[in-house]
Design brief:
Structural class: alpha+beta
Number of helices: 16
Distance between the termini: 62 Å
Mean pLDDT: 92
Radius of gyration: 22 Å
Low-confidence stretches: none
Shape: globular
Strand order of the largest sheet: 17-18-16-15-21-22-23
Strand content: 15-25%
């Protein structure tokens, strides 16, 4: 009897496999980190083979924990870090180089060149995305140009391209032995090659970027049976859902109606609002993207505000400065100071994303005096996440014309009570945490479950959602606006740092 559904959650820093029951409750979970590779300043890489190995390990571990067999799982869904780019040999399955991670900035000069030659509107009007180091296509171009022999192999159709979802699905379904080369509309919408209107690869963009079409995966919906796991403890289980991680969290939060929004606090910070069956162009620095497409139903679109550095800033404080020994320590350290001591930290490590899109910005710490100490620094780190979120919320309300009554939240950082209270304070609206907090994995499980009839419909999924905790604003208006004004001043200090 198939009483459970599984989800592979392949994130920027780790891979998880979670088993859910029909009520969306976690039955088993296994998680393993993978290396973050920094070959030179601004470059960020992952080893795709290591990610695949971790994926196999966590699947086996979680199944073992719950003492389940493949027959106990109705299906498996995949959710993944988006934009991270992999190119691999079709015959051997070996990557031609490390994956280039979404945070990587090596193509910054190419962004400037293409903006001069074509203008940003040429790309945004088709894909909903501005020219940026963020998206997959320029990373793919870099690999084709810089890894010897790759361009010739691509022209012959001997290599394959994909984001992490595509690479994992290909491996899961057999790899060199007839593995499926597929992506879903949400991941395809993050390449800067898919046309938002046709939901297919755009011929004009393929020509501009000089991308051979034969290396691209087939675009499918987010919820359908793509194939079956070829081997291992889950052999024979259908793979039936794919969603980019932020779209998966939107589905996991059951934001199926226009105007419903969620914010995920992970390595980066990502706010999405469901805008319905038509893409809404942004005039305030947001991305227009596909939210999800469930089977044959029309695609739903979203506006997204992407903040590059959120939880990654806490990791930086831990690993690069050594001010804390573990990420969990930051709340206690920050709470030991009554306020930020006038210190503001703008983490433009990879430039500024929404709503600024300043590739040449770099991180700054402002307001330092001899009074400032490590507790003020810790508080400034947490507050930076909340300030960036407010900027995105304001841009989203201007673009959509919808005022958010509450902000639904998820992700690893929501366990930080100080951060969530400050978020409610600086937004001046309630922040709500769902009772089931593994929303990204849950979204992938929901997509897979809908495809095989494990879940009946989206209304049944909405019935699973409930709030565990709500933070309400408690800061007075003058202080709120003074702090936000000082934050905005700090942001301007990051502009044009790279000449």
């Amino acid at each position: 009897m198939s009483d459970f559904i599984g989800a592979i959650d392949q994130g920027t820093t780790s891979t998880r496999f979670i088993v859910f029951d029909r009520a969306g409750k976690v039955v088993a979970c296994a998680q393993k980190e993978h290396r973050q590779i920094f070959p030179q300043p601004g470059w960020v890489e992952h080893d795709p083979e290591e990610i695949w190995q971790r994926t196999k390990e966590v699947m086996a571990e979680a199944i073992g924990q719950a003492r389940l067999k493949a027959s106990n799982l109705a299906a498996v869904g995949i959710t993944n870090q988006r934009e991270t780019t992999v190119v691999w040999d079709q015959k051997t399955g070996k990557p031609l180089c490390n994956a280039i991670v979404w945070q990587d900035m090596r193509v910054a000069a190419e962004v400037s060149r293409m903006a001069r030659e074509h203008g940003d509107d040429f790309f945004r009007s088709r894909t909903g995305l501005p020219l940026s180091t963020y998206f997959s296509t320029l990373k793919l171009c870099w690999i084709l140009q810089n890894i010897p022999g790759t361009r010739a192999q691509a022209e012959k159709g001997e290599v394959l391209f994909g984001n992490i979802d595509t690479f994992l699905l290909w491996k899961l379904t057999g790899g060199p032995a007839n593995g499926l080369h597929i992506t879903d509309v949400t991941n395809a919408s993050r390449t800067q090659l898919m046309n938002l209107s046709t939901l297919d690869w755009d011929a004009d963009l393929l020509k501009v970027f000089a991308i051979p079409r034969q290396i691209l995966p087939r675009i499918c919906s987010s919820s359908e049976v793509y194939g079956h796991v070829a081997e291992g403890p889950l052999a024979g289980v259908p793979v039936a859902g794919i969603l980019g991680d932020q779209q998966a969290a939107l589905v996991g939060q059951t934001c199926f109606k226009s105007g419903e929004a969620k914010n995920t606090y992970g390595t980066g910070c990502f706010l999405l609002i469901n805008t319905g069956e038509k893409p809404v162009p942004s005039k305030h620095g947001l991305l227009t993207t596909v939210a999800y497409k469930l089977g044959k139903a029309p695609a739903r679109y979203a506006l997204e505000g992407s903040v590059a550095i959120a939880g990654a800033l806490v990791q930086w404080l831990r690993d690069n400065l050594g001010l804390i020994q573990s990420s969990d320590e930051i709340e206690h350290l920050a709470a030991s100071a009554e306020d930020n001591g006038g210190v503001y930290f703008v983490p433009a490590f990879s430039g500024l994303y929404a709503p600024y899109w300043q590739e040449n910005a770099r991180g700054v710490i402002t307001g330092l005096t001899r009074y400032a100490n490590k507790a003020h620094m810790a508080r400034a780190v947490l507050e930076a996440v909340a300030f960036q979120t407010r900027e995105v919320v304001e841009a989203m309300e201007q673009d959509s014309g919808i005022v958010l009554d509450v902000l639904r939240v998820d992700g690893g950082m929501v366990r930080n009570n100080l951060l969530m209270q400050f978020q409610a304070d600086i937004l001046n609206r309630p922040v709500v945490l769902p009772s089931i907090q593994e929303t990204t994995s849950l979204g992938a499980a929901y997509a897979a479950g809908l495809a095989v009839g494990f879940f009946s419909n989206t209304e049944a999924l909405r019935a699973h959602w409930s709030a565990e905790k709500t933070w309400t604003p408690a800061m007075d208006e003058p202080r709120r606006e003074r702090m936000y004004r000082e934050w905005k001043k700090a942001v301007t200090r990051t502009f044009d740092w790279v000449e």
